[in-house]
Amino acid sequence: MKKPLVFLAGLAVPVVALAALLFVLWVRDVRDDSKHTVIVNAPTPIFAGTGNEGGCRGAVLTTLESGTKLPVRRIRYLKECATIDVLLPDGRRGYVVLGTGDVSVIPPLSASGGR
User: Fold this and answer.
1) For the residues of 86-106, what is the DSSP string, one character each?
2) Same domain, 16 and 68
3) Confidence class of residue 113 from pLDDT cuts 50, 70 and 90?
4) Same domain for 53 and 17?
5) Owning domain of residue 91
6) Among 65, 53, 67, which residue's Cα sits nearest to residue 95?
7) Which helix (H) or strand (E) holds 61?
8) Best CA proximity match to 37, nearest among 112, 96, 115
9) pTM, to two decimals
10) Distance (Å, rounded) from C-alpha 63 to C-alpha 11?
């Protein structure tokens, strides 16, 4: 009876350590994403939901005019496009598809896809 418990305990330690490392890396990535700001340069559609849910062709939530600054919640690099989850001035959440509309990201995203 002791040997299976020792084996399970020995297996659990590296699994928990790996899970903790992955969690720390994910938290760091989200924190780094939130350091960006999206500035709308020309009328740009904002899509409903998150970029992870709606992808490159989501449902349009609203259109923002130039000069609007939006805090970034999350940046996602999908197969066909990059999306940026933002918080709208009225408190709603949506996302921008890079290449749709005209926005600037401050500080700029790196050429390597941000990673």
Assistant:
1) EE-TTS-EEEEETTSSEEEEE
2) no
3) low
4) no
5) 36-106
6) 53
7) strand 60-64
8) 96
9) 0.79
10) 52
Residue 102, CB-side half-sphere exposure with 13 Å CA sphere? 6
**What digits encode the pLDDT tens for the residues 35-84?**
999 999 999 999 999 998 888 988 999 999 999 999 999 999 999 999 99
Measured at the CA of 28, the angle between CA 27 and CA 30, to 5 degrees, comes to 65
Neighbour-count burial of 70, counting CB atoms closer than 10 A to its CB (0-12 exposed, 13-18 middle, 19+ buried): buried
* Cis-peptide into 14, omega within 30 deg: no
**Bridge partner list, 4:** none
Q: Which helix (H) or strand (E) holds 72?
A: strand 69-77
Question: Residues of the chain with pLDDT > 70: what percent?
Answer: 94
Q: Which two tokens stand for residue 60?
A: 């349009």
Q: Look at residue 7 and tell me whether its pLDDT is greater than 90.
A: no
